[in-house]
Amino acid sequence: MSINTSQPSEIPDAAVLQDIANQLFKTLPEEVPKDFSLDPATHPKAWGVVEHVLGGNIPSKIEIPAVNPVSAVQTPPAFGGFGGSSTGVSSLTGFVPVIENVASPSAVNPPYTSGIPNSVAGSGASPSYAKQGDSFNINKPETSFPDENIASSKQQQDVRADPLLYPNVQIPFFENVSDFLNINEVLQQIRTSEPAPQIPSFSDRFIPNSYYFLPEDAFHEKVNYSSFGGSLGELVRKDFPILEERVNGRRLIWFDNAATTQKPQAVIDRISYFYQHENSNIHRAAHELAARATDAYEAAREKVRAFLGAKSTNEIIFVRGATEAINLVAQSWGDQNLQAGDEIIVSNLEHHANIVPWKRLSDRKGLKLKVIPVNDDGELLLEEYAKLLTPKTKLVAVTQVSNALGTVTPVQQIVAMAQAVGAKTLVDGAQSVSHMPINVQAINADFFVFSGHKVFGPTGIGVLYGKEEILNATEPWQGGGNMIQDVTFEHIKYHNAPNRFEAGTGNIADAVGLGAAIDYVTKIGMEVIGQYEHALLEYATHYLKPIKGVRLIGTARQKASVLSFTLQGYTNDEVGKALNEEGIAVRTGHHCAQPILRRLGVETTVRPSLAFYNTHEDVDRFIAVIQRLSSRK
Ligand code: PLP
After folding, report:
1. Within-domain flag for 192
2. Of 263, 216, 554, 219, nearest to 399 (Cα)?
3. Which of 219, 263, 337, 395 could cross-link with 267 by S-S, CB 3.0 to 4.6 Å?
């Protein structure tokens, strides 16, 4: 069915509209009311839409065919009743142009313009019109748009005066990140009143070691810390309100980034905006807020896809975090595909999250778990890895950056070697995504996991990336709503990925918050972040290493962020407490990576871990405490 509203002569009259609607309702599931009334007495707003569609040329009284009064009263607001099932709604697309042509502000407001999903196709319109009582006026958004949020800022209030200007409203987190071509421009966009410093071009910078995960032209002989390193951290830290906290009378220095990262104001605002203006369950309703929430959630998925360089959003599954993602793969793909006698390889560097699920699966199914060893610096021994690979190897699961030592592993090579024996691969990106650019297609692993909270996003949200054909051939992990196409008591048909693995109501708001975090780091550029942190890590290592009594744990040539150490004469907790007294937060303990610490002869370490909002001054304050402790022994 199609209704062309562009030619007034083709506009159906009210009775036809009502008849069409009722025919459609009859095709919808039982819970959707089957009769629809255009009687102005019951639905003044719906009538407003009709009035608009008919161009105001309607007689003062139209004979409405008699309807069942009970069902007319029960019918939910006007066109909103079109909802119910995605199939039902998408078959109504003939109606959507009617909605769009009436210039619903919700339909032209930028966050909701692009790609309102078909599953909520009715959402651009109906409930808004239905809620405004007799004051409905199609040309005045404030009478038809229940979302009062737009009035919250001066700029938006101005725009609001003219609904045609709505498309120009820019909300900070929807800016087009591709506009930012160089770092100085980017820095000027970052929330600060201070002028952005001039950051030297790559060729003016001096970085000591070559890091294969950073671009070639960044490698030089010596470090110019003050010009490059000093500025970025100073500038971005203003975006992180928690970094203004005082701990024991001192400005907080957050050196526990490997455990979790702090959140920029843009992320905090985005989550707050979601709950103020968009909150709804997704995918399953036909109302306005469902559309907003769905748009925001799916936009976040697209941001993750771009951030990881994945081929398709179908490869991006929202989960609780890296731990849940690995458990998902173990309990779905692993359970389905691995048989007694098959072998799984992990490395000695792994976080418990990438050991325990595989060990449990191995114990349950009679698999063999093999371990890639490391040298005394904490570097993986690839020649030993090569010896472990056999035709029985079915999975290789390795971290890209060790959370306990900071070692960066050559995942691309590890994956390629695994593929040579036909094994599938999983890369744990929990510690890498916040420190270096990632491209899952270049890495070519079958699965890649990370946690949002380690990349300046919220806790409770993370990502499993998987190659689409593998995901679609894998049994779902959990069953429930959202992941099925059709259910009877005899038969269940699942959706393909990603819904297949997103049973039930997920963490919608925090997925959106993660999207904002990705926008934030993308604006600065992961390469720039990696360069800056690299310089900062070199600087910290340079001053920590020679302090009497310090033993660095993890001295790989390729490292990111982490500086594990012990200090002779002190327990690690004593060092941690002394740092805390100076407002410096570090982690002490086994860091959920007992095998690697034991391999290097310790049970625990002190672990400062850096992020791009840390500064050289932060490092200096940290070094001063360790020097003072050392000098007392
Ligand atoms: N993998 C690595 C390397 C980690 O460092 C961590 C957390 O520290 C995890 C996995 C688990 O992450 P989450 O606790 O966010 O699931």
Report:
1. no
2. 554
3. 263
Of 484, 499, 523, the residue at which a domain comes to its end is 523
Q: What is the pLDDT of residues 98-137, one digit of tens each?
A: 222 323 333 323 333 333 333 332 232 223 333 333 343 4
Q: Which ligand 1 atom minimizes the distance to the CA of 592?
A: 8
Q: Which of 523, 544, 573 is the last residue of a domain?
A: 523
Q: What is the pLDDT of residues 389-418, one digit of tens each?
A: 999 999 999 999 999 999 999 999 999 999
**Residues 272 and 257 grouped into a single domain:** no
Q: Which domain range does residue 581 map to? A: 225-262+525-631
Q: Which atom of ligand 1 is nearest to the CA of 321?
A: 16
- Residues serving a catalytic function are 592
Helical axes 616-631 vs 572-581, angle rounded to 10°: 120
**Identity of residue 84:** G
Q: What is the reported pTM?
A: 0.69
Cα distance between residue 113 and residue 266, in whole Å: 21
Q: Which of 539, 588, 475 is nearest to 225 (CA)?
A: 539
Ligand 1 lined by 431 (C-beta under 6 Å): yes
- What is the position in ligand 1's atom list of the atom closest to the CA of 260? 8
CA dihedral 197, 203, 209, 214 (to 10 degrees): 80
Q: Which of 326, 374, 373 is nearest to 352 (CA)?
A: 326
Centre of ligand 1 to C-alpha 322, Å, is: 6
Q: Would the CB of 351 count as within 6 Å of ligand 1?
A: yes
